[in-house]
Amino acid sequence: MASIRLFVLLLLALPGLLHAQQAEPPRNGTLAKIARDGYITLGVREGSVPFSYLDDKGRFIGYSVDLCMKIVDEVKKRLNKPVEVKMTPVSASNRIPLMANGTIDLECGSTTNNAERARQVAFSPTIFVIANRLLTRKTANIRTLADMKGKTLVATAGTTTLKQMTALNRERNLGMRIVVGKDHPESFLMLETNRANAEANDDILLAAQVAGSKQPADYAIGTEALSLEPYAIMLRRGDAPFKEAVDAALRAAFASPDFPRLYAKWFTSPVPPKGINLNVPISPQLQKVLANPTDSSDPAAYR
Amino acid sequence: MDYHWNWAIFGELSPDGVNTYWQMLLSGLGWTLATSLAGWVMALALGALAGIARTLPQRPLRMAAGAYIELFRNVPLLVQMFLWFFVVPELLPRAAGDWLKALPQAPFVTAVICLGFFTSARVAVQVAAGIDALAGGQAQAALALGLTRPQAYRYVLLPLAVRIVLPPLASEFLNIIKNSSVALTIGLVELTASARAIQEFSFQVFEAYAAATVLYVAVNLAVTAGMNVLERRLALPGSLGAR
After folding, report:
1. What is the average pLDDT score of chain B?
2. Which of B2, B17, B221 faces A236 most closely, judged by CB atoms?
3. What pTM was estimated for this model as a whole?
4. What SMART domains does this protein's entry cite (chain A) (predicted)?
């Protein structure tokens, strides 16, 4: 029993120890850190096609990674010295702690910028706008969310989509059974094995799932946009000089005549490793953002 | 560390608009307890049967119990979860498979079945070890007194064996509680999954997992204390395993 008591005491002391960690003075920003170390660390994802993923040669590639490289060029210019680029794979679960403890300086993935998260980190100007939509089998005859009354819906654990579907289910009295997939491939597997009548997810992710599936022709992505969400590149909070460099780099990239080619490379042409073409042209919402870059987390700003 | 601590996050309304984050964690804890308790009942029942069969004189029964134990002991729990959830329904006749998939709490039922079988194999080994630890003497003495074999098991062997294997069984009980977190991979929103969801929604990762850790530890300490009491209650002076 004495050992149990000691253990409980240790546990109780833990929050205090963690708080003591915070007492260290804030570092003088990411730019200073990069200048001192001579390298910048990008947090990348392993499976967010076509934003940030691992290709068959073991390199991290994607639309977000390309945009991050533009930011790196801007940083080089400002520091006036060469900067080495390191890439660290992150997951949805560890991207925040790794950003907070300085392991990564930028997160180049498919991260939604929302108000709750903006209390913890800062976001670049929006790089992509997605809508939540339903993915169904064509044979199921489900056109809109209203057709899902009393049926089973799958969404991925911890996503903004799951959160929104739970709310809509209540507001519209749909009585849907909502099942949770642990990650995107698993959510799709639930639809594929008929455990769910529809999958709710970011439309761009759904497009990638369908394009990579065994029978792409069997599935239909709903036309009803259930929400709009901005994707952005993540950085640490309260670092004005670095944020300013990030903003400047992306504004320049969006305004550059090369941008349509960069977009086409990832969204309207075959991408490695399988040569799948997502065929997603620039949406009107994204057009608007490219013309007037914004880092707003409010979905209303993208309508 | 450049981290924005916010322990007040648990009082805030979670994205479902009904429950606070704290209620979300508690609901996860509820599923963890329900899954592990139901699985534990199943594991004890099946494990006791297989463990007894391991020690019987009939060779075919011993072999069958051995095969059962090896099957469930040698495949990783995560793989078993996937097999039960995604593969088994596809192997059944179509109607049965569809019925399984449409169960209102399919992930919960699957998790209980999977944890029950997995843990029962481990319980069986311990029960058999407890009976074997009594050596041949107790069994032979009981039979020599004129007890039938079932009576010998019921009145002599099992009561003594249970006392011997109580400590490892307590560990197994703690294991099933911890192993229930694997059920998040088939969509059961238990304690670990709800902690993960909180961190995904709010990005308050340390608070979410710290709270889940404390809840797991509290539950397991309660189980340990309960098992200690049980062990003292059952102690038989002069027998193996007595304190």
Report:
1. 92
2. B2
3. 0.81
4. PBPb
